[in-house]
Amino acid sequence: MAPALEAVEFDGSSSSLKRVCVMDAGGCLGSSLVYSLLQRGYFVHAAIQSRVEMESMERRIVDNKNLRVFHTDPMDYQSIVEALEGCFGLFYSFEPQFDQPSYDELMAEMEIRAAHNVLEACAQTDTIDKVVFSSSATAVFWRDPSDSTPSLGDFDERNWSNVNFCKKFKLWHGLSKTLTEKTAWALAMDRGVSMVSINAGLLLSPDLTVTHPYLKGASEMYKDGVFVTVDLKFLVDSHICIYEDSSSYGRYLCFNHVINSNKDAVNLAQILLPADISSLPPSMMVGENKMVPQRISNKKLNKLMANFEGGATLSATE
């Protein structure tokens, strides 16, 4: 159990920072962001989808007067407006809460609608200065090999996944994240909302399993040199750095490890499939530790974070 955070008094200086909203604060990333922001002196509106997660947040972070917890449904515009009231910034991520057994094409419709509601609410909230929008690397690197239009060089934040390719091979995570992020960018530009997006690799969270929709097509990612992962602390620090740095702009690919060797693949498989790693391609299990050339770059983010001093991050298991 993590220790309770002491309330931080605002002294009116720029170092006291401002009031921000974290949505979805009940998830692994969101709850860790709340904890780190409170430690840095922010007043935080934690927007949470489920009552159970609200109670969990209140138990873990007690007696902190700089925290307000809101029950917010991304499909309910009014609940979003209430959570954003008085906030200067928004950290937005969305993990749908529903009883569907798999991540499928319908997910894109749900995520697009949620992003539309949130960006529209930000446009109607006069105090909002900046939105940090959590997307995924799967919105960057899926493309049709037969398409000669894209550059054959490394992938970076200038690339977008091919929607038709994602549909053809049922890469629903890439499809959903691509369409949702494009919707968010279109609304942000149309409504005059200042937005920056973070395209994160696979989050190595304590609850990660082989069923995570990001992993659909993992073998192809590996062979293409674009299979990237990110630690929770690095991802949280990246969000805060991008929010605090006035020079941040556009999209940022966020990862701190590339799965591009047999050893890396086996180590990840042991996390995902501790009892059985037989589902890995045989080429990863035998022979020399072959290296696959890395073809994805996060130089833009690394340059921004060069002098960033991060704080503690609350693990989802604490």
From TrEMBL:
One Pfam assignment: NmrA
Annotated keywords: NADP, Oxidoreductase
One function term, GO molecular function aspect: oxidoreductase activity, acting on the CH-OH group of donors, NAD or NADP as acceptor
Keyword ATP-binding in annotation: no
Database matches in Gene3D superfamilies: NAD(P)-binding Rossmann-like Domain
Top-level division of the source organism's lineage: Eukaryota
InterPro entries membership: NAD(P)-bd_dom_sf (IPR036291), NAD(P)_dehydrat-like (IPR050425), NmrA-like (IPR008030)
Segments forming domain NmrA-like: 18-139
This protein's name: NmrA-like domain-containing protein
Organism: Lactuca virosa
